[in-house]
Fold these 4 entries.
Entry 1:
Amino acid sequence: MTDIISKVCDENEDFRALIVSDDECAEELQIQEIIAASLGIFHHHMSSSTMQESPESSQVYCEICMETKGTDEMFKLENCSHHSFCSDCTGSHVESKIQQNIFPVTCPGLRCRAIIEPESCKSIVPENVFARWEEGLSESSLLACEKLYCPYRDCSGLLFYDRDQDTIELCPLCRRLFCAACGVPWHTGLDCDKFQKEGKDRDDLKVEELAKKSKWMKCPKCKHLVQKTDGCIHITCWCKFDFCYVCGGTWSEEHWSCQIS
């Protein structure tokens, strides 16, 4: 009888152990499900966040209006990769500079000297602004060039000379060739260095000798000889340059004290 009771008790203990094991297993499975669910939610959240941020990655910050705008609203400055501006702000910047007659127009960035080309802004500025822009660039390029007068004595043609160009020029008035670097009729067969060394023809030497004896003065600007027959020492050359006939300096009130020796 005792053996039977003992056997029953052992079976009960095994049953309890089995029950405890099942409970622990269930609890562990529940924990695993919670963790798996959490990981799933986290993964879904990350995926959603990535999808939401994607459109924002195509947004660019404008340094002028300080707004974030789409890439299609931004202006691409070919000569500068350091700054970003929207097309509206760039157009306003260009228009402001044109109104102030500032040429060329540079990047709106602080101390940035990158030049904005007119063609790149043709679609973002009014037609009249674009036309004035091109006109202003042409004027500024002429101002940067050197003014030259035709060296032939019977001509007074004026043209603009860029030192980067060839020295041989054609006078637009008399249609004769001359050397822009030397300021003389074209020296065929001689380069400028050789001409300046071997140089001046007899007529030029005679004219210079006569000018020296007659006390003629050469205009400091256009280099034409000027002879004063009467009047004061204040000379206004035909090229509109004012100089002192005594010392040859640029005219100022101080030159009244110059005396003819």
Note: Confidence is low (pLDDT under 50) at residues 4-9, 11-22, 38-56.
Entry 2:
Amino acid sequence: MDFENAGNENNQNQLSHRQQHHHHHSQMNANSALPLVRFLNCLEKAAVGIVYYVDCTVKDELICRKEAKLMQYKNIVEQILLNPKEYHEVTLQLSATKCLCKFMLLSLELCETHAKMLFDLLKNSTFESVRVAIMVLMNGFYLKYPLAFAAYSDDVYGCLRDRSDNVRLAALKTISNLILKEMVKPNGQISEIAFCIIDKHTQLATLATSFFSELAKRQHGETLFNILPDIFSNLVGVKLDEQRQLNEEDFKSVIDFLFKYIFDDPRACRDLAYIMSKLTFNEQSLKGLLHHYDNYRDKLFDNDVYQSFLTILDNAKKNLGAKPDLKVLIDALSTSINKERSPNGILIAVQQAQQKTKQQPKAARAGGAKKGKQTTSRSKAKAKQSDDNDDDDLKENDGDDDGDGNVFKRPMRKEPKVQTISRSKRGADA
């Protein structure tokens, strides 16, 4: 027993010694990485200073010369990022990543040369903070070199599927900011943002809904309208993997949200119906078409819209075969569509259109009255802010007011009127 106890004590002592050695070794690594982190931070600031404050001719000498020390330091940054197992400190990897991004902003050549390396880090880095930092700094790249990352747009949108909520949130903020500032044209990949509408992360879902509501205001809704067919075709599941297939409830939620922004322009309805007739509908999309019947039933009195929906039904019969369940679904959709083409259905649609036309002037007058009230309240708020001498907030409000086309001034105080009495009258009173 004494021999066994002695053996156990010896093992425990060895284990504690190993733990102390490992802890001491990790502290040594952290302490040894600290000077390098500080050096990279200084190097990053130097690159930023060169970008904004150094003359172009001097900048070329600092970058293009082979013996330039700045470019030699760049090799150190590359060595750290290419060997994450050796340089495994999070702060070191983050500082090196930021430093690389600032170096890439020095010239278009550096940006294009290191683009693949940067996006490899974005996809493969095990450090969440590194991936977040790259997405945040992506705004600067698109602002200065908008065409440098054209070949990597799939990787940028792919960050919306990242395993980290923080990375996806940073990606959504960056992408939505670039699109709304018209630095990136929206295309079919914007369907990745549509998936975020039903995301479990509340902040992510809220930001996605705000993005589409803001996009619907651009060019009277034409910007969103032009990309809706691509969004719908990507949502139906043809191009999706099994992990990203939408269930029926989520699909309906996304479609319900996006259809709110389809305005009542007859030309837009005809164009959308024609585009839908060119799509391939599966069973799920046909169910969605029947579920959202109330959204387009009043448009079926238009002959072009009606013919487009007949084309959808004919193509569905050819492509989906003669399954009993599908036949019932197609027959129900056909009955509903033809019902609106009856004389009674057309009469109801015309009456509804007339009611909307009568209500529009009233809504316009009501909106004008509300706008006047808002203008008064804004002018008061503007006058109050000018007294507080808050320069930052003042600049932001001036930017918003210029966009509205209104110029606000401090309201002038009205001097009280002094009643004047003529000399003759004063003499009479005396």
Note: The CA atoms of residues 33 and 370 lie 61 Å apart.
Entry 3:
Amino acid sequence: MKEVEMKKVNKTILFASTLFISSIFAGANHSYAQEDYKLDDSLTQAQNKESSDSDSTKENNQEPVNYDYEGLEKALNEIESDKASDGKGEIESTKAINKEEQNLPTQEEISIKEISGDKGPKDAKNTNYQDIVYYDKSKLDEIYKEAKTKPQKVNLPSSSRGASEEERQASKTNWYEENSKVYHKDDKGSLSKGLSEIEGKKYYFDKDGVLQTNKKIITNNSYYEANDRGILSQKPNSWVNVNKKVYRTDNKGNILKGISKIGKDLYNFSNEGVLQANIKEIKDDMIYMTDKLGKISNPKNFWANIGGKTYRTGKDGKILTGANNIEGKTYVFDKDGVMAKNKGIMSQGRFYNTDSRGVANNPKNAWINFNGKKYHTNPNGYVQEGVWKIDGKLYYFTSNGLQGNTEVVQQGVVYKVDANGIAKPVDNNIDGEKNLDKVIEWMLTARKAGLRYDMHWKNRVSDKAADCSSAVYRSLIYGGFLKQGSYIGNTETLFKMGRERKIMYEVKESEIRYGDIFVAGTPGESSGAGGHTGFILNRANDTIIHMSYGQDGVAITPRKGYMGDSSGLPVRYYRLIGAGSNNLYESEK
């Protein structure tokens, strides 16, 4: 009898509990249905800071930058297809806004997020929920992750673990209603707040613990909808409208951001995931045009005005830089792609003047003033640098224009430059012609006369002998590069002469030619057997002419292995300044 009575009591408790919970949700279906409802930020995680894309250049044709909601609704209604029997509508590709857009080329592959889906924003209007939106910019995803790790599933307090089955059944979930609002307590008796998982379902409670129903919730990365019982769900591959701003979710329910591909079309979303409209934007050296439906194109060979600046794309869709010929006219764009107008501009070594429409001309053989500095262009329109003869005078220029009051060496010649930029060569004061053939002629005459190798200070300058360095010095005097009676030096003084760059200057091994001088040894250590010198004779045959200790006289030998390099001595090469030559003796053997 007692068992029968207990079963009746259990059924009565269960039936009463069912009626109580149903009445709670029936009374709470439309709680907090006011549009300006905001949740206290103190409940949420740290808010996201507003950010902007500093690497992009934008122009929004509407102020402020926002989605054309009314225009979108109208356009979407026009293209909305009949919904299928399963309730999921298919949308046709949106038509081009105008003829110009129809001609825009299709954007080729770029780094984007690929998602499958419909061909355009389908029904992004408010759903059958009330037009009330809860927008929470806190890190709801992180809260959910934590809640999922430690689900707030209600259990009996430890003091009640020995309770009867009837008590456990009655206390399985601590839902209750107060003033037509639904609350929930966790296993410690505290109100559930924020995002909570209860018995495998997700719910959201405000700062006071009130269950939120019929709400749309946007987080940093995700979109949720709370139904009339407060159960949250995500909507993958969906267009959603929140506070008249349109968003799109991917196949995981996350909000798309940046340039994203949906079906076959590209769409432009802000850093917060809001669909952008009527925008011209430069990213990664490309111009992207966003129409009123948020659809993107990357036009080729296209003029664009963005922020009052003029740009032009090439056949690859990238913005042009430098000087470009467009339909028979020259236009110049700076490094950022901005077209120059009403000013002078340097580009790729040339100077251009531009008019009010950006058409450029490149003056040739002309003096020009640019940024307060004076330049001169050559016959091809390039700005000249170095020493140049203009109208019978030599002038010295650098990349900063005409220079004055300085000294410069060009191709081994030393020039003194006056205050007006006029350059004059500093001669070595040798009278007469400087001739390489005369230099080599002395060496050949010494070979024919049988001069022997001798390093004795007196013999090395005699008619019967010479050493390597005295032979070079005596040849230079004979060829007009040194004055008669000049000091007969050695390899050390040859190194010094090369450093001074008045008689000769150093050249690379790859540049050597007939009449150049080689000097082997280390400066400061080349005296005596520590050095050797002579002349390059034939570059093609790679031969030299020199006073050789091994052959006890002037010899023509291969270059490699006979300059002192076979002993490990380093070799430097020098070219005589102002030398004339007919290469008369180049083929001597």
Note: The domain at 366-425 is CATH 2.10.270.10 (left handed beta-beta-3-solenoid).
Entry 4:
Amino acid sequence: MADAKSASTSPHSDNGSRRGSSNSLTKSKSSSEVKELSKQKYDSPFDASLVMARKRSQQERLWEIFTAYALQISSEDPTRIRVVNVVKLLQDCGIIDGSNTEEAKMIEKEVAIVCEAFLKTHPTDRDSTKKLDFTAFSALLLHFAKMSGDKDPSRAYDSLVRTCLEKQQKSRNRVVVAQELQECKKVLAAFEDPLTKIFMFYAAQSHSKLEIIDPKMAQYCPPHLSYAEAVAFGRKYGIISHGVLTTTEFATMYIDSLPKAPATEYDRVLTYAGFCEMLIRLSKRICVDNTVPADRSMKGLLQLMWLALSSTSPRALKITDVLKSDRLDVTKYFLNHFEKYWKKERYDNYFGDQPIRVESVDNPPSPSKPPMPRRLSFNLPPESETKTLQRRASVQTSPTSRTT
């Protein structure tokens, strides 16, 4: 009986021990699988892409803060920031003391000295001004991170950037023009030839100046408009002058038209695609009536550019902007192209209620020229009214006369 009992209980106990060892094995295996899965999850390309996306998002928000502070004192160039603005940014973020105590003032001076020393070793601007582009600004933040004493400078840099982003208020909203870009496709296609030539003329000026300042950037950057050349374009074609837009407003639209997430900082420039976006943003700002179709607003902007050039005296029009590659005067080319297009449109007045008075080229322009309005309203004209143009010449706006 005892043998039978032991025989009956022995396999049972063996099974129990096997089950126990099997359970412990399963648990250890499960634990190792979890660790392995966790490791795979951490090392997976998807996880790496999320980290890269977060870093890109950080860089884009930092770029917005950078441009906001670059525009605080003046709008000379919103793509470069002065040392005094960098110090102000660090104070506003709480990275350095911004109070009026003597100790805070000493810290401010020390930080400014560090910035000046860093700028000498990173000459992004080789003229008399002392400014940093975004690449040098990011390098400066990394320089501060290394000075913090942290063994991992990369971690210290991330912490510094996060502090800047967290302490800042909501960033300025970027004006999106994707829908308007689709609506203006036909107009942009119709004016692609003159607009491309205008762009290439100012891009050539930008490139020649950049070769002197930063040869490496000139080598790697695609054809683009620098901010200075974009302002020159805005003034020449009457967008900034005549009280239509301020330089600060123009600078904001220039910044919004740069690539949002470029592959490299060499690509953060105003290419032809960005130039077209900027024109659409300008047309939206100039036109106060949001109900006006985007393509009509765009035509209104082109008419404004034509008005600014045509209202100049014929003798002044002899000053040429020659595109060397085509030996072509881009200003006159745009004038002729717009007039041909406008003729097909039966000289429609895209300015709506804004009357247009046209004078002959043989007659001098009238002495009294009222300034162009700060905002233009492009209302659709009545169907019964048709604006006509007898001959191209000096064109001015007049509050009292109307050509029918």
Note: Residues 89 and 368 are 47 Å apart (CA to CA).
